[in-house]
Amino acid sequence: MDVMDNITRIDDLAKAGILPKEELVELLSSYSEGDRMYAAEKARETSLSVFGRKIFSRGLVEISNYCRNDCYYCGIRRSNTKAVRYRLSEDDIHYCCDWGYGAGFRTFVLQGGEDSFFTDDLLVKIIGRIKEKYSDCAVTISLGEKERASYQRLFDAGADRYLLRHETACEAHYSKLHPSSLTLANRKRCLYDLKEIGFQTGCGLMVGSPFQTRENLAEDLLFMKEFGPHMVGIGPFIPHSETPFRDCPAGSAEDSLFMVSLVRLMHPRVLLPATTALGTVRSDGREQGILAGANVVMPNISPLEARKNYLLYDNKIGTADDASESLAYVKAKIESIGYEMVPERGDYR
Ligand code: SAM
């Protein structure tokens, strides 16, 4: 397979927004560094034509690391008895948003494990108070799988967006990453419910997760085409020492960046973060993510005490910084490549 063939595939993907599965598999299996740079340049041009040099920021509040699930890859899985568990109080959460608003954030993301302490009633109260105080802000929820009626209640309380990575679009692969209590069918049911309810909905995956094949990545791209997400979270898998996947290698930054570019080419207007995991496997990962087509960053605005325990994987960056340090760091990185973080909600349009 020569370089020209992959350049043609990338051009065709950009033009048609899709490629047949076998072409995607071939592209993902045989791409060269030159192909990756070509895709990044094209994706960057696409992103510039839609968003200019504006980067949307989301203030990430990690509200709890309690989780009822036992995903094999995740550091806050139920079976990790070494995790130091915490949950933020309502006041803690509102304090983070107060600070974040002053710092220019116009989206707050409440993320956490599936913690039954945060009932629908409590979340409705928290969302309601944030929206009442900051009516010009968007609230994004990322708290895992729920019944449709619960999602509806959160939406009715004012939540605007929901992030729920599909993790992998292949049933067999899904079952190698999760215990049998978790199914791809339910994950997809959640995603379709969220979209039907009216949330700006985000799916996504870890690149290089254990057992992942190039075919799986192609299936992820095809699933995203079918689903039509408003947001896509893509970052490398990174092992955590207290999980069954402790000895598995991390996903590569290059594969993750290539996937970011392909997603941008397939979904020009999608909200696409340069993820913390990307910044963890490569020190310039987030800048490279933006240069490969990403247009969102999610600085952590959780209290210092919380972030050092919200450890999904080893060596996570930013766990010793406070919110203003995290923000200054991310801002400086964005400015160093000629982009600008803007105090806007940054909705999907
Ligand atoms: N519980 C919610 C959920 O399931 O969507 C939100 C929190 S969950 C920890 C957020 C995301 O972290 C997951 O969707 C997963 O893709 C990512 N994640 C978990 N463990 C990871 C790891 N070891 N490496 C990279 N990303 C990981």
Structure described in brief:
By secondary structure, the protein is of the alpha/beta class. The protein has helices spanning 3-16, 21-30, 33-51, 90-102, 120-133, 148-156, 171-177, 184-197, 214-227, 253-266, 276-281, 285-291, 304-307, 323-336; strands spanning 54-57, 59-64, 107-112, 138-142, 161-163, 200-207, 231-236, 296-297, 340-342. The protein is built from 14 helices and 9 strands.
Which structural traits does this protein have?
single chain; 349 residues; alpha/beta; 6-stranded parallel β-sheet; 46% helix; globular; binds S-adenosylmethionine
Average pLDDT, rounded to a whole number, is 97
Approximately how much helix is present in the residues?
Answer: 40-55%
Describe the strand arrangement of the main beta sheet, using strand numbers.
2-3-4-5-6-7
> How many helices in DSSP terms?
14
Structure in words:
The chain has 349 residues and is of the alpha/beta class. 46% of the residues lie in helices and 12% in strands. It is built from 14 helices and 9 strands. The strands form 2 sheets. The chain has a 6-stranded parallel beta sheet with strand order 2-3-4-5-6-7. A 3-stranded parallel beta sheet has the order 8-1-9. α4 (90-102) links the parallel β2 (59-64) and β3 (107-112). α2 packs across α9 (214-227), α5 runs parallel beside α6 and α9 (214-227) packs parallel to α10. The radius of gyration is 19 Å and the shape is globular. It starts with a helix and ends in a 7-residue tail after the last strand. It binds S-adenosylmethionine. Residues 73-74, 111, 113-114, 142-144, 164-165, 167, 206, 235, 237-238, 240, 277, 312-313 line the site of S-adenosylmethionine (SAM).
